[in-house]
Structures are given as C-alpha cells and as structure tokens.
Amino acid sequence: MYPNNLKYSKEHEWVDLESKKIGITHYAQESLGDVVFVELPEVGAEFEVGDSLGVVESVKAVSDVYSPVSGKVTAVNEALLDNPELINQDPYGEGWIVEMEITGGEEDLLSAEEYERLIKEE
Amino acid sequence: MKEKLIFEKSTPGRKAYSLPPIDTPEVELTTLLPEEIIRQEPAQLPELSEVDVVRHFTRLSQMNYGVDTGFYPLGSCTMKYNPKINENMSRLPGFALAHPYQPEELSQGALKLMYDLSEILSEIAGMDKFTLQPAAGAHGEFTGILIIKAYHQHRGDKKRTKVIIPDSAHGTNPATASLCGFETIEIKSNAHGLVDLEELKKLVGEDTAALMLTNPNTLGLFEKEIIAIADIVHEAGGLLYYDGANMNAIMGYARPGDMGFDVVHYNLHKTFATPHGGGGPGAGPVGVKQFLAPYLPKPVVEYDDEKQKYFFDYNRPHSIGRVKAFYGNFGVAVKAYTYILALGAAGLKEASEIAVLNANYLKTILQGKYHVPFDQVCKHEFIISPEKRVKEKGIKTLDIAKRLVDYGFHPPTVYFPLIVEEAMMIEPTETETQETLDAFAQALIDICQEALDNPEILHNAPHSTHVSRFDEATAARKPILRWKKN
Question: What is the pLDDT of residue B1?
C-alpha cells in the first residue's frame, strides 16, 4: 500500500526522489473515491511546499493537490485528462500527477512507516 | 416500471395538435428570414398524442420526492415545510401581475413590502440596511464580498487580498472569494470542530480582507468564541462576513450583528420557508452595518417622509451597482414576508428552538448506533458516520444513504463537511413531528443492523425505485448530456 522507496506528505501526496514524480497516496485515492476529473499545472510552473499544484475531483469531493516539495514542474501526466481513473487503479504508477525539478522541502517528508502511523491516527 | 424517454415514445407523423386551415396568403420563408438562420433539416422533435405527453410528464412528476411527500433531512439546506399560505399571498394579483416597469406611484404596495421586509430582516440579523436583489445564497455571498472589496478600495487600502475561511465552510465561500478576486486562506478547525483562535491570530494581518463564517458552523456547532474571533479580525483591519445558511438555528436567540459581523446574507428559501431545490427560485438578501450601506447594490427601496411614498433610490454613487435585473426574486420576498408575519417574533424564536430540539433528539437516539464525532449539544443539525464495525463490512455512507431511499426517506447530505470522513449531515428542521423523527431514527438503526447481517442489501440499494443505483463515476467521466438520434 505504501512503498518504502517513496516519501510522503501529511497532505497525502507521495514523492519519488529517484524519478522526481509526485502523486496522491493509496489512502487519498480511497478516501476520495472514484476520481472523475484532474486539473494539472503548466509545465514550468513553480511551487513552494504546500502550494496547490492541481485539483482532483471525485464523485464525493473536489480536493487540492498540495505540493509536497518546492520546485519546478518538468512534466505532467496528460493521460489523466482522459483517464482520471488511473489515479484509483495505480496511484504510484500510471496515476502519477507531475514530475518536478525539486529545489527543497524533501527533508520534512515522511517515510512509509511514519506515514502509515499518521493515517492510522486519522 | 421504467419510463422511456419522450423521444423513445415518438411515432413519426403522430401529433398532439390540429391547426385550422391557413386563411392568409402563404409566403415563402426565404423572403422573410435571412438564409443562414433557416433550418435546413426538420428539428428532431418527439411526435406523440396529447394524452401520451400528459401521462409521460404526470408519471415523471409522481417519481419526484419533495418536502410535500416526505421527510427531507438534508443538512445545511433547511428543508422545512413551506406553508401553502405563502403561495396564496405571492399569487395575489397585485403582486403576481405587478410589472417591473410599472411607475412607482402604482407600485406602492410592492415597494412597501420590500421596504418592510428589509427592516424585519435587519432586526432579526441585527444589521442596518438590506438589499433584496441577490437571487440565492451564493449570489448573496458574491454581493457581500464585493461590498467588502469596495469598502477596502474606497479607503485606498489595496493590500487586502486574502479571505480567511474555515475548513468546515460551505464550498460556496471559497468559490465566492475566488470569484471576487481574493486569495482563500483556509483555517483548520480545532478538536472541538470550532475555529482555532491561536491559528486565527497567526493568519490575520494587513492583507486580511475578511473572514467568512457560518455560525452555527456546518458541524451544527455554535462558535462560542465568536466575539473574540470578531475582535481578532477587526483589530487586523478585516471585516466579518456571515454566511446565513444556518440562520434557522438562532432566530430570536442570537444576532450576527451583535456577534460582530459586518455583512450577512440570508437564504429566504431556507430560513423563511420558500421553496428550493429544483430551481426554487431562491433569494439571498444581503444586510450590512451602516458604514457599508453606501456600497449596497442600487436601487435601494427608501421612504420619502415628506411625500409619504416609497421610491427606488438610484442616487448612490458608491454602490457596487446592480447584481440582478430589476429588484430580485420578488415573489420569494412575498412568501418570506408572509411566513415571518404569520409566525411573528415569538413564532420565529420557537421555530429555532424546535429545530434545535429536534436535531438533539435525533442525535441522542442515534448515539451508540452511529459514530458521532462531535457529541456536545448541537444546534439545528449534526454529523454522524458509520461505526467501525459497519465500515468493516465494506459499507460506506453512500450505501446507507441509498438504502434510506428504500425506507421512504430522502437521504441526508453526505460526504460533507469534508473534515469528517464518511459524513452524514442531518438537519430535521422544526416542522417534523416526533413520530416522523422516530421513524427516521428507526430506519437508520435498522439499516445499521442490515449492514452487519446482510451488507449486500445495502450495496445494491435502492431496490424500490424506478431507477436503481447508477454508476456515478462513469456518469461524471463520460457524461451523456442530451438525447441523440442513433
């Protein structure tokens, strides 16, 4: 559910420090339910930790995707525009949201173990 | 029985009209209309007999569910019964046939009603001046925040770019702030579901334009620290906006104006018993404290003591301008005015009292069967969610809501507020009898038992409706918005 090679934010995003990809966690996609629409940022846009970098809309709610790190967007997953369900089906793979050139904020991210403890408390 | 679309019932050549023979010379269409606006192919309209059209729409109307057919505990929507006398009054010819371009001297009755309603609304909310123009609640918010923006701009204070909004707020609040050009700052609720004062102190500053707040909030909880909240925002130079959606909890007991709010809106269609849902229409009057009155939309109805007549005051140079054609949804104002006069001050107070009592009664019965995240005494509505043992059966709030339909009840608001997982938001209103409340509580308790014994029955619910559970995700991802001929 929470791969060890990823880092996590308290706002339920994951970051792959190797591939620089960012998405939302299994817990987030399950809480949201069926995702029906995704709004992506422009390539080149810059975000600080906690900025809203996109929007995920499900049958239940509309949620901001908060940037777990600071940096500049180098690629976005355009496949989500036609197939938003990829976020539900494969949140850590095909369901990635953006790829970023990371300039900071990694140090405050959680490990898989810490993140799992966090969601158990919720 | 499944009702086919009216297009699917069509038979070529069948018709529901018979026109007399033409007794004027026929004229070629192209001599009357430009070529480009003449339809090249016949419109694909359904062809049916009159009785089949009548039966089709009558059957559809019978599938509808409204507050006149059953209990409708939709949280935050105040689906109280709308007394029929309201309809009778709004249909009086002097009101119903009044024309917006009718001269003022022939509209004195309508103007007096607007003036008096504004005064009454001011008294109930503790404000000084009202506009009746906004067409509904979100439109009222838009109007109110534009007034706040105009106030800051008029003072030459251009730094105020942020509006603070709690995480439990109605979604219209941040939408309004964005639409008016502000940045939304979310303030998290504390463990008691209320605004966190320390957090608020950190968030306010010289960039704060306003705080938007509902009191009681969407958890049905009264913001006890409202005076302190108001002081913090005012000291920072910001204003307070009151989202009046939950006004039904406090009429006659507390007034937003006394709490420190500078701008409020009402939802006449909630608090004052006028129809809503399915288009209402609604009405979202906005009231302000005196120092903001110059910015109200114009015209404002005023009374000329000397001439002893009511008139539309257009001479308001600081006004934000019109926000609606003519004078708002006037018919709704007539209904709300009727309701207020019929109940009187004591009756309005009693309505709020019973609304709060009914909510607490239901909450108390359901405690132990459902998880109640905030178990202090609530106002007019409260939040429950399925207990862990139910969730472990794979049951979600949506399943419980759908199953309630089989029991003959409209489900409560679900998945809102967002800060409670699997939330169900129940607002019984004051108009329900104890028998109805008991039956509803029993249905929820029975459903809880079904969830434990036979969860499948919930997964597939509803079973008793013309259309059963539909695929909301596919409907949202690949919407089919209109009928097309194959």
Answer: 67
Task: Read off the amino acid at residue B181.
Answer: G
CB interface of A with B, residues 10-29, below 8 Å = none
Model pLDDT, residue B116: 98
A35-39 β-sheet, strand order: A35-39, A52-58, A62-66
Q: Residues in chain B with pLDDT < 50?
A: none
A33: closest chain B residue by CA? B473
Q: What is the pLDDT of residues A60-74, one digit of tens each?
A: 888 899 999 999 999
Whether A60 sits inside 8 A of B421 (CB atoms) is no
pLDDT in tens, B388-413: 999 999 999 999 999 999 999 999 99
Same-domain pairing of B333 and B356: no
Task: Check: CB of residue B164 under 8 Å from CB of residue B187.
Answer: yes
* Domain shared by B334 and B361, yes or no: no
Q: How many domains does chain B have?
A: 3
Rounded CA gap, A17 and B136, in Å? 48
* CATH code of B274's domain: 3.40.640.10
Please tell me whether residues B108 and B253 are part of one structural domain.
yes
ipTM surpassing 0.90? no
Whether B336 and B375 share a structural domain: no
Residues B50 and B134 in one domain: no
CA triplet B162, B234, B158: central angle to 5 degrees? 40
For A56-113, what is each residue's pLDDT tens digit?
999 888 889 999 999 999 999 999 999 999 999 999 999 999 999 999 999 999 999 9
